[in-house]
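Folded chain entry
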Amino acid sequence: MSLIRVLRTAKATLNRTFYIDELPTGATGNVVVTVSRLDGTIVEGPTNATGPDANQLYTYVFGGRDVVDELIVSWAATVSGDAIVIDSDHIQVAGGFLFSLSEGRGVDTVLASQSKYPTARLIQARLETEDECERICGQAFVPRFCREVVDGRGESFLKLRWPWIRAIRSISVRPTPGSAYAAMTAGQLAVVVGGDDGVIRIDAGISWPTTGYWWGAVWPMGRSNVIVEYEHGLDYAPPDLVRGAKIRFKSLVLQPTSALPDRAERIATTETGVVILASPSEDRTGIPEVDACYGRHSRPVPSFG
């Protein structure tokens, strides 16, 4: 499985090798690639991949998407007589990165060597840095997309995972247990308001028409009965947070080779030269300067008053 994060409208080259045990094995006939949204809507393909090359590598060029989104890439092929479909690649189309690869490489002169620190390694370290930063801070600092399945509570508000809601793209509701999901119309979406605190509310100031509405002015109660697709995140990240993220990025890139980890909190000069380290945890990287930066940018607290 691989996660690929690309900028909105940008193309991306995807690769796939099929294995029998540990042996790279070419497909019989074409390898067909399909790119779909999380709801199953096809946005590209089915299209034949290019290849294989001498290493049994197949290639497909994703053509880009003009909106932030999350997509699944399916590779269908017949390998060693078996028809297989692999839905293992996810593409996150994002509105930005915390920093460019060139900015990340410029954090320390030791990273200037592309042979020692190839681009693929930097891409992976930046992806880990961004995901960790967003998890610790509880918010995204650049525009992103999320599709979330939540429980209705019979109330006018619904708490989502991410704050700073930029746009609500769609909402589907299952009004009663066992019934089918029904997509809200544009008129119905117009009375749903998303807040910076990550809570969507039915605007009580707008009177609801009787025809075409399933439940009135509250979200119907149920388990996993509301599906919300929305865009979230800030326009750009605060400078101090970017600085902290770059420090964390460097520590991830250099982790296998660094003699003194960045999470060194203090050094005790003893006969054995003991280095005392800060400890990472679920909400801390263990690097004091980075954790101080992240700690200044916690998730907005919802208000239900």
Summary: The chain is about 15% helix and 35% strand.
